[in-house]
Amino acid sequence: MKALRLDRLLANLGYGSRREVEGLARAGLVRLDGQSLRDASQRVPLDPDLPERMTVQGEALDPLPGVCLMLHKPLGVTCSHKEAGPLVYGLLPERWRRRDPALSTVGRLDKETSGLLLMTDDGALLHRIISPKAKVSKRYRVSLARPLQGDEAAILASGELMLEGEDRPLLPVGMETEDATHCTVMLHEGRYHQVRRMFAALGNHVDALHRDRVGGLALPTDLEAGGYRVLGPGEIASLFAAG
Ligand code: URA
Q: Whose CA is nearest to atom 7 of ligand 1?
């Protein structure tokens, strides 16, 4: 089991500088299994259940490094660390923005797309999810400006649709029609603005876009827009199961 000095662990989780964290420990504000840990230089084993056993200033410890969470991204927020306007990172607790390693989004959703967005500080996991080899599918609910013509599902399934400015056709996309202007699409790759550009290539226009599933993990209906949830090992494994 990996162990870290208490001051390094808490500083890396954004609780303050190592000196500030040392002050918290000395003041008896860091507790493990109900006992104050006053020596910030002591090493703490990073047991998975540490957040349930350790408190800082009376509150449960934040998730340990290696966290993966799902966020219900609302419309109007950007998947970026530095653009102007509201950012997805602003939806997380303030302290989490000082974590090292930092949280990143697993791919991106457009500012005007809502739905399931994964975030992690685990670079290896991030690459495993976005790697083309892993074939993690993504499902989107699409609202269209104009009625479907009837041939879209066949064209998307053909693996021959070319997006403007590209020289390689899209991998086959699964499509299910809900009504004249609503459908779901299942992608197995992630090209820039793929769904919007796909429907533009089909002569339509996407009015609204929402991602409701990544691999075998669905956005829970009780997770409201702007809310997030830390994933457990079973949910992380479900990302790699068929969608
Ligand atoms: N396709 C898009 O066009 N936008 C997204 O945000 C995701 C997929």
A: 109
Interval 54-71: pLDDT, tens: 999 999 999 999 999 999
Burial class (CB in 10 A: 0-12, 13-18, 19+), 199: buried
- For the segment 133-152, what is each residue's pLDDT rounded down to a tens digit? 888 999 999 999 999 999 99
The model's pTM is 0.95
Measured CA to CA in angstroms, residue 184 lies from 31, 71, 112, 187 at distances of 49, 20, 17, 10
Token digits of residue 142: 């699409």
Residue corresponding to tokens 């830390």: 230
Burial 38-68 (b: 16+ CB within 10 A, else e): eebeeebeeeeebbeebbbeeeebbbbbebb
> Which candidate in 110, 122, 167, 207 is catalytic?
110
As given in the structure block, the two tokens for residue 185 are 């699409």
Domains of the chain: 3-60 (3.10.290.10), 68-132+216-238 (3.30.70.580), 137-214 (3.30.70.1560)
> Nearest Cα to 99, choosing from 65, 52, 137?
65
129 close to 178: Cβ distance less than 8 angstroms: no
The verdict on whether 110 is a catalytic residue reads: yes
Q: Is the CB of 196 under 6 A from ligand 1?
A: yes
Give, as one character, the DSSP assignment of residue 61. P
